[in-house]
Amino acid sequence: MSVFISYSHEDKNFVDRLAANLVKNKARVWVDRWELHVGDSIIDKIQDAIQESDALIIIISKASMKSEWCKKELSSGLLRELEEKKVLVLPALLEKCDMPVFLRGKKYADFTDKLSDGLNEILEAIASLTSDTQGRFQEQPEYHTDWSLDWGFTDDGLYVLHLTFVDHANNVPYVVLTEISIIGNEAASKHHALQNEAGKEWLGRYAVLLALGDFAQKNNELQLIIEDSFPQKTNFLLGDPNKGAYYSVIVTARRMGEDTGRDVLIDYGNHFITVVEQLKKKIKDFPETFSDYI
């Protein structure tokens, strides 16, 4: 998932500062001067970037409002917004100027005074695109899953990563709560501690999630059947015992709400796969393999 920035090159110094701050806050940013190379088709590259981006920041200035390129990029963004029926175009006001009629009804991020003021507004608008600790995915129109994760160390120094899923459906009177604890053994935990000291905690966390996704891809029946209000549990080992580093994965799922008398099947393996797919789109430096990490 990326954020496309439309701007006039007269405003490139401001855009470089804005883009750098967005990257620091985990946003994947598309800026033409960063992405285009000699020989590239400018039109094709920009068109593809606009179609694939999850948000388009439109820099509003006197120069950009006169730019034919900026007008075309704005039109493309607004057309996508109408077709997909969701907010995609995020106006960012750099200086007071005449705006197109179809932008005047939109709230804009105000950069006319301080960079920090407008930046906070932009970060709030794209929070769902940059967060790597929580999210939502929808497998069917009437069914969606919310997820979050947290991590830390036990009193014994063991690394623990927690994943929580809540499954909702529009037409059923209950939700399903699934909690997963991934506990590293001593060797794995020492590795995480070293990564933390080096300021690379994220690398270990992403590597474990990648391993979960890979494990789920190879094991199609990571499922639990919930028959009543009592929690259903299962567990398995993850990692490479040959290297001495592995994790105990404990899965607990339960239904909450009205009892319909019917069993519920939870495909928690598919939840792993979907979370990893979401994070790969958000995180530029997502690990390629788990075995290299441990």
Topology:
Elements: E1 3-6, H1 12-24, E2 29-30, H2 32-35, H3 42-52, E3 55-60, H4 68-84, E4 89-93, H5 101-104, E5 109-110, H6 115-125, H7 127-130, E6 134-140, E7 143-153, E8 159-169, E9 174-184, H8 186-197, H9 201-218, E10 224-226, E11 232-240, E12 245-257, E13 264-266, H10 268-282, H11 290-293
Helix pairs in contact: 3-4, 8-9, 9-10
Describe this structure in words.
This protein is an alpha/beta fold and 294 residues long. The chain has 2 domains: 128 residues, Rossmann fold (3-Layer(aba) Sandwich); 160 residues, no CATH class. Helix content is 38%, strand content 30%. A 6-stranded antiparallel β-sheet has the order 6-7-8-9-12-11. A hairpin with a 5-residue loop joins β7 and β8. The longest helix has 18 residues. The chain is globular. The mean pLDDT is 89.
Percent strand: 25-35%
Q: Structural class of the helices, strands and pairings? A: alpha/beta
Stretches where pLDDT is under 50 for at least 5 consecutive residues are none
Helices, by number, come to: 11
Order of helices and strands: EHEHHEHEHEHHEEEEHHEEEEHH
Strand line-up of the largest beta sheet: 6-7-8-9-12-11
Estimate the helix proportion, in percent.
25-40%
**Main sheet record:** 6 strands, antiparallel
Mean pLDDT: 89
Q: What is the radius of gyration computed over CA atoms, rounded to a whole number of angstroms?
A: 23 Å
Kindly give the count of domains.
Answer: 2
Report the count of strand segments: 13
Terminal residue distance: 27 Å
Shape: globular
